[in-house]
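Hi all, long-time lurker, first post. I run a small reading group and we've been trying to get comfortable going from sequence to structure in the token notation. Rather than ask abstract questions, I figured I'd post a concrete chain and ask someone more experienced to write out its structure so we can walk through it together at our next meeting. Sequence below, copied exactly:
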Amino acid sequence: MSLTSSVSVFSLLLLSGDPDVQSQVKHLFKDASVTIAKDASALSKETAKCTFDAIIVESKPSSSAGAASIPATIDLTHTLVITGSRTVLKRTSKLIQVAARQKAAEATGKDALSLEDYLEWKMGDFVKGMRSGSGRNLHPMLINAIERPLITMALQETKGNQIQAAELLGLNRNTLRKKIKDLHIPVKRKRTAQTRDA
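-- Answer (accepted) --
Happy to help. Here is the structure in token form:
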């Protein structure tokens, strides 16, 4: 689902003077759903009366203003408010993008957040951290991290039936058995009521 479809149903107010935070939010939300001002005093009277789904407020480490810098005309009982330093805001804007996509999906009656969107959101910081820490071999590391819970869930869904789990996963049964062994996945075959009664 593209973010452009969400702009009409999700509105965001960013109160930050940091060009990096502004740029990141503009990029994530494609400008149309975002109102940006350095602080609440820079908002027009009309904008200050608008309803926003989320408000992001940059607070200085030495300041305790935070939510106090939000215009009093904004109903905070129906608005997500995030206040934090520049570092916090840079990390949090991706989370808000996920929330915007979720709301757009719900408003259009479509499925919620896609698995791809969720993985992109969760892996972004991990990949950045690995790069800055001179990490290598990310592909096999991430595949192993995803493969173990995926196989475990498939086995749970099929009550331990490896033939059915292999079909569900699109794997050869012998390949699945090898992966179960290599990844040390415990296999417990659950008998159904029919099997016990027979």
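A couple of things your group might point at:
Residues 3-112 form a domain with the Rossmann fold fold (CATH 3.40.50).
The first helix runs from residue 19 to 29.
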